Amino acid sequence: MTATSLTTTRPGGPAAGSPRRTRKRKGGGTMREATPLTYIALIITVLLSVFPLWWMFVVATRDTSAASQRPPTLLPGGNFILNMERLFANTTANFTTGLTNSLIASTTVAVAVVFFCSLAGFALAKLRFKGRGAFTVAVVVTMAVPVQVGIIPLLMLMDWLGWRGELQSVIVPFLVSGFGVFMMRQYVEQTVPDELLEAARIDGCSTFRMYWNVVLPALRPAMIVLGLLTFMTTWNEFVWPLAALNADNPTVQVSINQLNVSAYSRDFSLMFMGSTFATLPLLILFIVFGRQLVGRIMEGAIKA
Amino acid sequence: MTTPLKRGGAPPPAVPPTGGSRGAAAPGSPKGTEERRFLWTKLDTKASPYLFIAPFFILFAIFGLFPLLYTVWVSLHEWSLIGGNEGFVGLDNYARLMGDAKFWNALYNTLGIFLIAVVPQLLIALFLADTLNRRLRGRTMFRMVLILPYITSIAAVAIVFSQLFGTQYGLINYGLGFLGIDPIDWRGEKYASWVAIAIMIDWRWVGYNALIYLAAMQAVPKDVYEAAALDGASRMRQFWQITIPMLRPTIIFTVIISTIGQLQLFTEPSVFGTDGTMAGGTQGQFQTVMMLVFQEAMRYGNYGYGAAISWALFLLVVLFSIVNALLSSRIRSAS
């Protein structure tokens, strides 16, 4: 992550190996200067990125007519609390259940994925065993499988297990991820020196202790990003909860969709309030961990 | 697990249960412990790797691989929600698929939306990455905002966009009105609905792809540009003749990822439909293949036929991946 900020501030620096004449760095080297046009383009992008979210918030704080008002009002109103109360009291949406379910499912899946994937990633990166190469290839292949295709048999499986409509149906099938294993394997390979593991082995560490005491602490940054991405993916999952759960026991996405599809009342301030709440936990996580996420993407580590 | 073994070096009390078998052979115990410790270590190094990868492979086999393969089996049967498995019908479901106008329409929609979403998406992302690849004030802030759409809730944003694309009260038609454009029926008209859905998709993915491209651009050695500049190549020329070729692997990668994702497109169009039927508009203007699968399986209970559509979708994804791989290797060998 630090490498990224270095490359941008001092081009030529860590892009090492290249000739020495990149020494002339009067005020930052060869990187182009930004022109006013650059800033204009970027500001337009920022406005377009933020606008739908801002509009969502504005309508959520006003009464429903605000959505169709001409000219549109672009400042928040005073109905935030009122709409929030209406949302949580709405019987079509079951929003409280949806929110709780999503929080439980996303957290559980994120923790499990981080644990199982780092465990497998460590084994594939550092332990010697028969079939290691083949297993690694298998992990990569699973990443390319479009899993949504199996939706019908997966539903049947849920029926057999009696999980249809139950929260575990959106948790258990997602406890591992090929992408996660692959990402962790790469990270362990790059960051955990063999000598450290050998030293731990000589000290009498079992393999699991090696993982727990040596590997896990080194994996922290990657774990945060994988956990964040997994939480986000689970939180956003739509087709599957829509198929496996129901309106009485929804996830937050299914819950806001209930408001969206209820034909009688397209109550925009209610829908947008639901959307705001469905986005809020992700925004909070983004504010806390966003820099790390951007850093990992810039390192080319995230490719999903 | 190792704790009792370590304590084994210390006097008896630590091992009461096994102590009985070893009787009063207190003097011999350190040796026995050593041996057991050795065996334990051997077992540990042999078995642990498999234990560590087991959760991934077992869970994937049950919840990933099995459903995928079982799809084929189900698709070869007359199989419904109510009647269950009503017998083997061979390729009947596939024959029906070939003659089903709804399927071809859904396929056409999926590919159409894919094309008009992905091409502009990657071009804008390239342009944005090039814009960001300069000495900028507030660089981190810009990057964070670019990635912001990517982390938001898809369904929530689709709800907001659905309202923005409203024919009568939508802000987008309101804005277009100032340009003298008559209100567009974003839901009713096929190609207009494709554009609306493509815009939702691109809003989400442009910034993400831009960051990936930006990372790749920063890995291009600066002296290549210096040399080009000395030769008098314009910025535009440098972009097309240096940046784009150098980014080729990254671009191919993003194309592959977008393809796999977009062929399974579901959330945006299904929320955009606002009726929960998965019909994708009154005439199926924007019903995607995945929506059709959902409609067949969940609304009509046709598991067998739904599975046949899913499997067709799977083959399509595989086909696209192979074409992608072939194209990219040809491009690579050509350069």
Automatic annotation (TrEMBL), chain A:
CDD domains: TM_PBP2 (cd06261). The keyword Cell membrane applies. The keyword Ligase does not apply. One of its GO terms (biological process) is transmembrane transport. Keywords: Cell membrane, Membrane, Transmembrane, Transmembrane helix, Transport. One of its GO terms (cellular component) is plasma membrane. It is found in: Cell membrane. Its main location: membrane. InterPro entries: MetI-like (IPR000515), MetI-like_sf (IPR035906). The chain crosses the membrane at residues 34-55, 103-125, 137-158, 170-188, 209-232, 268-289. Residues 1-10 have a biased composition (Polar residues). Residues 99-289 form the ABC transmembrane type-1 domain. Belongs to the binding-protein-dependent transport system permease family. This is Cellobiose ABC transporter membrane protein. It comes from Marinactinospora thermotolerans DSM 45154.
Automatic annotation (TrEMBL), chain B:
Residues 107-324 form the ABC transmembrane type-1 domain. PROSITE patterns: ABC_TM1. One of its GO terms (biological process) is transmembrane transport. It comes from the Bacteria. InterPro entries: ABC_transporter_permease (IPR051393), MetI-like (IPR000515), MetI-like_sf (IPR035906). Coiled coil: none annotated. Keywords: Cell membrane, Membrane, Transmembrane, Transmembrane helix, Transport. Residues 17-30 have a biased composition (Low complexity). It is found in: Cell membrane. The chain crosses the membrane at residues 50-73, 106-129, 141-165, 191-216, 246-266, 303-327. Residues 1-32 are annotated as: Disordered. Pfam families: BPD_transp_1. Its main location: membrane. It is a multi-pass membrane protein. One of its GO terms (cellular component) is plasma membrane. Belongs to the binding-protein-dependent transport system permease family. This is Cellobiose ABC transporter membrane protein. It comes from Marinactinospora thermotolerans DSM 45154.
